[in-house]
Specification:
The chain has eleven helices and eight strands. It has 281 residues and is α/β, with parallel strands linked by helices. The longest helix is centred in the middle third of the chain and has 27 residues. The protein binds NADP nicotinamide-adenine-dinucleotide phosphate.
Length: 281
Amino acid sequence: MKIGIVGLGLIGGSLAIDFKKQGHQIWGVSRKESTCKTALEKGIVDYVSTELSSLNSAEVIFICTPIAKIAPTLESLVPHLDPQAIVTDVGSVKQPIVEACQPLWANFIGGHPMAGTTESGINAAVSNLFQGAAYVFTPQSNSPQITEKLAILQQLASSLGAKPFICSPEVHDRSVAWISHLPVMVSASLVAACLGEDDPDVLALAQELASSGFRDTSRVGAGNPELGTMMAEYNSESLLRSLYAYRDNLDQIISLIETQNWQALSKLLADNYQARPYYLN
Ligand code: NAP
């Protein structure tokens, strides 16, 4: 299959590596000449260009640019597309992207592979990034045409070792607000709160003592700042709903500690211990 990938960064580059390994022909497009050169030199793509017109015979195109650039990229891509081409994106937010992209191209189906690292750019691209991860698609119709295109995308996602899911863009955005966007903000506020320690000796020792617990809880809040900001900007309603609920829970824990209600705190922690495995498939 001839696959086009626009935006050769962590996600686009990682998709390219895995699809190329399977024998697909990969046509990459990125903004910077230097990124295109690196992608070709590293063997991540078969052909590369800074011009979207190079994708005029691609069968499936993945738009892997930052969220704000996805709809403008599709708009510029449309005049060059083969009429049967399937276009999907990988943006971490779906509702505003699907609303903007679906009217531009009938064969557009929103997508979101639920995998990443704290790194960004072409040099962060790795193989097997999507192995075992969920891959969400948000089709806007169940017409025979879209059903057929969706099946192709689901098969491509499965070939990465990912598990395809289908839902509406709205349900996607509310769900990822809980398990992806809220953790980014909570983790970011954790790091910011630690940095607010005003005794330099305590701060220096805390930095020396930080171990696996801090590494786990700070990781998602100290990743790509552009991505974190766009998650908040494009999913603000769902993210705020989750943040308010989180603040209420934090207040409840503060109150239990202030009132020395160790029994209730212990029950809350025990309930969480029971519930957490349901989120870790
Ligand atoms: P990234 O590593 O920064 O990659 C984005 C790439 O897009 C950049 O390397 C840049 O390449 C290119 N680009 C920027 N503007 C462009 C344009 N106008 N035209 C063509 N290429 C352009 O970011 P990423 O983490 O891969 O994120 C990309 C998308 O994946 C985002 O929409 C994000 O929401 C989604 N996503 C991210 C994660 C994650 O954990 N990181 C997970 C799932 C989904 P140049 O070097 O050429 O400028």
